[in-house]
Amino acid sequence: MTFGLANPAGALALAAVGVLVALHLYGRRRRTVPVGNLFLWQQVPSTPLDRRRFRPDLLFALQLALLLALIAGYLRPYRETAVADAERVRLLVVLDASASMQAREAGGTRFELARRRARGLVAQLITGDEVMLVAAAERAHVVLAWTTDHARAQDRLEALEPLDTPTNLAAALALALGELHARPETQVAVLTDLPPEASGVARAELALVDWIQIGQTDDNVAIAGVSVEAPPFRPAHDATATVLVRNYAHAARRVVLEARVGTEVWARRELALGPRASEPVLLVDPPATGEVTLTLAAGDALAVDDRALAYLPASPPLDVLVVSASRDLAAALGAVAGARVRTVPPEGLIDAEPARAAVYDRVVPSGAPRPEPALYLAPPPGNPLCPGVRTVDDAAVIDWDVEHPAVAGLDGLEALTLAHAVQLGTPGWGSPIVLGATSRGGFPLLVAGERDGRRLACLGADPAGSLVASDQVPLLLLVLSTLRWLEETPGDAALAVETGVPALAGPGAADFRGPGLQVAGDPPALLAERTGVYRVGGRVVLANLFDDRESDIGREGGGEWPATARPDAASAAGTVRHELGWWLYLAAAVLLGLEWIAWRREAA
Amino acid sequence: MNLDHLRRLTLHVRRGMGDRPGDRRFPGRPQPAGIELEAHSDYVPGDDLRHLDWNAVGRLDTLLVRRFTAEREVLVHLLLDASASMAVPARDGKLAVARELALSLACVALAANDAVRITVLSGDGAARVSPVLRARGSLGRAAELLAAVVPGGRLGLGAALEAYAREHPRPGLAIVVSDLMMEPADVERGVQAPRARRYEVLLLHVIGAGELDPGRELAGGVLADVETGATHAVALTPAVRACYAELLAAHLGALEALAERNRAVYTRLASDASVHDFLTLELPRRGILRRR
Q1: How wide is the angle at C-alpha B117 spanned by C-alphas B115 and B118, nearest 5°?
Q2: pLDDT at position A316, please?
Q3: Min distance B247 CA to chain A CA atoms (Å)
Q4: Mind spelling out the 3-state secondary structure of A420-483?
């Protein structure tokens, strides 16, 4: 039998004893004691009370005992007694709840079979045995902490459903093995469709757990990926989508792929897929823009990967107001098909018609800003909006934020060299997107952000000469890409995510509450647990399962691998911990009663 | 308290003979009339001829008259200190003990056909004096009177007893029940006044257990006199406790000495002691009470 403290940090509360002593001394110093007559006491020399020796009375002793009992209870002392392993069972069930567990087998889905098996294990427990449930999907979920309430465990198992996410068994196994090492009498049962070697856990650790693999069928055809190409400033029918369909079965399959944009049928293709073959399907000439739903009529074992979602964004023609003293820039932008480009000199800006975006060439107008999103090219140094530091020569691009939509899809920016450039500062409303450098050091070349709800960008490149010259093509592409970002309405573009993979959610997402999708953190990140369409903060989120490991459901062998070893943890092996804190709290309650009686007697 | 036990006791009174005829016999003070022959004396003109002892005249040829033992009523004056000091230390309950003691003595006196007058010496200076109680059935009235006593105020015992003796010059037995926590000189002044009027004086000192051992009540602090409001800061160190014990012993010795000097009787009852044992054991041992 050993004793210990579950909360040794609680010993800091002993400082309260000092407070009690101080209060006692202070109270005693102030204490007036009535006596019948002082004539005897007045012959006793008076003593300065502050210098008195500490002399506790009964009330103080009771208060001290009460305080110590409370502190001792807070320390959570325990007594551990050795118990033979056979006397009790602690069962920890790890249940795979990933997407592949939705695969249909004879007798039900893999998850249903696993759940049935888990319920059987729980039913074998006897009164006093403990059980804990952990669901393993993209991370470990403790469904039920240690309990002896077996009925509750059965209820929790019954209510559990598999998710549409990939599997991360390692996290759940780490949790289970931690419990196992802490309490060696723990039995860990893992119910999954993966073989032990796919768990990502060392073989020696796997020998400690009972591994039960469920499922065999490989009958699955899936949409393994979708890629949408929508050229900027081009009509909707120029957009294309490429769908990758993969047969994970070891037998040839014939399936039908149907694509819809909204409710309108876009395409319907019949596909013949060889064993474990893939086929990309190019879809062209969409009838509209919007949500694209791709479905696979396969009748296979796993349905969750037979459906995918994509988004065709609207891409209107370029509509831009160029504020420049020269017409070179307008000429270059006007070369874009269907573009509507107007040029006004800076002094004529006030009368200019509105456009979807404005480009200010070497000028930052003073006064109230126009409502359009704006791109400032080579802003003059010293202006408050796009603070330029100075003009530099022989600059080149050295880095850029590939995740930012203003430069998304741009390759070859490193080829952009500039004879003259404005070294920008970083304003409070934006962040550097493209970094340039000279021999003297780096600086922001493109800064983008939002100010007062309006998208703004500052580009330090000085487009001296014609932008349509062959050596200026990277700069023209950068300008057009930035204009595309400026012209799009914020929140219009859908966010495509994969289940189980966290992604930044953007502003306004923190308020999202709903099943299948979790939003947390600052800045808010979202994690989809179910495939489907979500509206998060005014933005469309499309969640798909594109995971080869989940879709490739075929398993060879299978069966059960009982634990072959037990952990060597003699210090904690076979022990039962009895918390003593409640007894101390009970003693504190009794002491409180005694203290009250003592106080009443003293008061009387 | 078992009243039957008390009714079998009587106060042993040596002095304090009153004027009113009663049951008490006072040997040594022969008087012309009575029941019990005590002595003879020479006849002087005016003596009642019926009391001439004719046998003595015949044998001795001398006129002798019979003298008898005086039989008088004893008026027991129960003087109860009701100053504020009787209420502290509250845990000791000195006043309750004093009440019980006074009521028990009243019971003893009434049972022995003595007259009783209960006087509450209040701290406000005005003594509340009861009528003389003579009937045994008056015990309830005495109990009511004692139960109504509320402690408070500052009492000068010497002055109070002087005033009482002045207002009640007929001698009797004065039983003073007090905590006597005052200067012995003041107590002596109070004892001398009734003694000068031929009272027999019995000082019953009710002392609190917390006064005998102050460590029971306090560890220290600012001591406040409940009667005067004066304060005195004391830490109850062993040295202080020893000093207090010496002072208390000296005080008690002074009280005993003054009683002896003034031919009064002094006895002491601690508040945590049994009043019954005090009445049935201690007072008979001191000759104050005796069995009838």
Answers
A1: 140
A2: 85
A3: 7
A4: EEEEECCCCCEEEEEEEEECCEEEEEEEEEEECCEEEEEECECCCCCCCCHHHHHHHHHHHHHH
Q: Are residues B44 and B129 in the same domain?
A: no
H or E element, residue A372: none
Does A33 lie at the interface with B, CB-CB under 8 angstroms? yes
Contact A234, A203 (CB under 8 A): no
B84/B67 same-domain check: no
Which CATH number does A319-487 carry? 3.40.50.880
Residue B12 inside a domain? The answer is: no
More confident: A511 or A291: A291
Please check whether residues B164 and B277 belong to one and the same domain.
Answer: yes
A85-216+555-576 CATH: 3.40.50.410
A32·B231 Cβ contact <8 A: yes
Among A46, A48, A55, whose Cβ lies nearest the Cβ of B232?
A46
Best residue of B157, B179, B187, B222 to probe chain A, by most A CBs closer than 10 Å: B222
Residues B46 and B185 placed together within one structural domain of the fold = no
Closest CA to A333 of A297, A366, A373, A361: A361
Q: Is A54 on the interface with B (CB under 8 A)?
A: no
Q: Is B63 a member of any domain? A: yes
Per-residue model confidence as pLDDT tens digits over A451-485: 888 899 999 987 766 666 667 788 888 888 999 88
Clarify whether residues B130 and B208 are in a common domain: yes
B261 Cα to chain A: minimum distance (Å): 23
Interchain pair A47, B233: CB under 8 A: yes
CB atoms near residue B97 (< 10 Å): 25
Nearest to A52 among B179, B182, B235 (CB): B235
pLDDT in tens, A171-227: 899 999 998 888 888 899 999 998 888 888 888 888 889 999 998 899 999 999 999
DSSP β-ladder status, A253-261 and A290-297: antiparallel
Q: How many domains in chain B?
A: 2
Looking at B37, B55, B71, the residue that finishes a domain is: B71
Query: Nearest CA to B104 among B4, B14, B234?
Result: B4
B110 & B179 share domain: yes
Average pLDDT over residues A254-282: 93
Residues paired with A279 in a beta bridge: A245
pLDDT category of residue B118 using cuts at 50, 70 and 90: very high
A–B CB contacts, 8 A cutoff, strictly below: 107
Final residue of a domain: which of B71, B88, B109?
B71
**Domain limits at B59?**
22-71
Instruction: List residues in chain B touching A: CB distance below 8 A.
Output: 84-86, 88-91, 94, 179, 181-183, 208, 211, 217-228, 230-237, 240, 243-244, 247-248, 251
CB proximity A604 to B under 8 Å = yes
Q: Which CATH class is domain A221-315+546-551?
A: mainly beta
A35–B223 C-beta distance less than 8 A: yes
A571–chain B Cβ distance below 8 A for any pair: no
| pLDDT recorded at residue A572 | 44
Cβ distance B222 to A39 less than 8 Å, yes or no, reads no
Exposure string over A389-399, b if 16+ CB within 10 A, otherwise e: eeebeebbbee
Fold match flag (A85-216+555-576 vs A221-315+546-551):
no
Contact A32 B221 (CB under 8 A): yes
pLDDT confidence of residue B267 = 95
B47 and B178 co-located in one domain:
no
Shared domain for B52 and B160, answered yes or no, is no
- Which residues of chain A are within 8 Å of residue B158 when distances are taken between CB atoms? none
What is the bridge-based pairing of β-strands A264-273 and A253-261? antiparallel
Reported ipTM: the value is: 0.80
Tell if the CB–CB gap between B222 and A55 is shorter than 8 Å.
Answer: no
* CB neighbour list of residue A441: distance below 8 Å, 6 or more residues apart: none
Domain boundary assignment for chain A: 2-80, 85-216+555-576, 221-315+546-551, 319-487, 495-544
